[in-house]
Every structure is written in C-alpha cells, then in structure tokens.
Write a structure and sequence with these properties.
- The protein has about 210 residues and is mainly alpha-helical.
- About 75% of the residues lie in helices and about 0% in strands.
- The protein is built from eight helices and no strands.
- α3 packs antiparallel against α4.
- The chain is flat and about 70 Å long.
- It starts with a helix and ends in an 8-residue tail after the last helix.
C-alpha cells in the first residue's frame, strides 16, 4: 500500500507545481520541447519511411537506420528550436519589461541559425517548406496592409501554372539545381515512365527485376 500512496503524493506535488504561475514560462519551454519532439517524429517518420523504401537502395538495416536517423534529427532540431525560441522570447520580455513583435523575430532568428543553419537534407527540406509558406503569407500581409494592390481576379491558376512550368524546365535542363529528393521524385515520374520491357515493368513494377 505504501508505493501507491507515495506515487499519489508525488503526482499531487507535480500537479501543484504545474499550476504555479511563477514557473509557467519555464514549464512552457519544457512542454514546447516535448511537443517539438513528438511533432517532428510524427511528421518525419512516415515521410522517411515512404521515401526511403521508394528511392533508397541498400539493405533493410541501412534503410531502417536512415529512417531512424532522419526522424531523430528532425525531432531533435524542432524540439530544441521550440525550447530556444520560447526561452529567448521570455528572456527578452523579462529584460525589457514588455512584449514586442521584434522579440519573436529575434528569438526565431537565433534559434533558426543555431538549429536549422546546418545545410543538410533534413534542414533543407524544412527550410524550403517554410519558405513557400512565408512568401505566400507575406504576399497576403502586403495585400492586407495595402502595400500590394488586391488582385481583381484569382491569381492562383497563374501561380500554379508558372510554378509547374518552372520546375519541369529546371528538371529537364538544369537538374542539378533541384534538391536531390525532388530530382528522385521527378525521375520516377517523368523518366522511369519512358522505359519498360514487358507487362511486369509496365504496370506491376517500375523497373524489371534482375533474373535470378
């Protein structure tokens, strides 16, 4: 009976601590780290699983190791970034006695430099994902603030057409400029579909299997 009572007392003490306002900023950093780690793993693991088994060669162990390494790197970087960002925002507001919009930018700038500044495959994918969202958001903000005239017609079809035109032009004539994972995807779609030998690698498999 002693162990359950001790556990209940411990849980009560922890829950009491979690409700203390004086520790809220520090606890928010800890939970931010937790959420960053979980979200990074949930996002990266399925993506790494699919991309690795579709396009990566090597043994099963090599593929599993690549999946685990990619998932760990994404999860760690995002967790540490959230922790750093929230900590720096809190520090700036405490020092200046108020919260400012520039605090968010500076905290994220430093966190991005420290955690996502290394030019590797994981960081490259994350940064390019963010770049597309940020550019669209800035355009919308420009329209909202009146810096950019509001379009009289829906610009999305032209945006989509230009985007696809550019990416296929780059793939066909300037392929090394594209990210390796994008090159692999487009090779699978647009080049591998030009080659087949019989029904097996026309409909069932992408490439014919070597004869045993």
């Amino acid at each position: 009976m002693g162990a359950p009572l001790q556990l209940q007392a411990l849980l009560l003490a922890v829950n009491t601590l979690l409700h203390k306002r004086r520790y809220h900023a520090a606890l928010a950093m800890v939970k931010g780290f937790r959420n960053g780690a979980v979200y990074g793993a949930k996002i990266r693991a399925p993506h790494a699983l699919v991309m690795t088994f579709l396009f990566r060669s090597g043994s099963l162990w090599d593929k599993l190791r690549a999946i685990l390494q990619g998932t760990y790197t994404h999860s760690r970087n995002l967790a540490c970034f959230v922790f750093t960002y929230k900590g720096l925002c809190t520090l700036q507001s405490r020092v200046q006695g108020e919260t400012s919009q520039v605090h968010s930018f500076l905290a994220a700038f430093i966190g991005g430099l420290l955690l996502f500044g290394d030019n590797n495959n994981i960081n490259s994918q994350i940064n390019m994902y963010l770049m597309s969202r940020v550019l669209i958001a800035l355009c919308r903000l420009g329209v909202e603030k009146g810096y950019i005239p509001k379009p009289r017609w829906n610009p999305f079809p032209l945006f989509a057409a230009t985007l696809w035109g550019l990416v296929l032009w780059l793939f066909e004539y300037h392929r090394p400029t594209l990210q390796p994972s994008l090159q692999s995807s487009m090779t699978y779609l647009y080049e591998d579909s030009n080659v087949w030998h019989d029904l097996s690698d026309f409909l069932i498999y992408n490439k014919s299997r070597p004869a045993k």
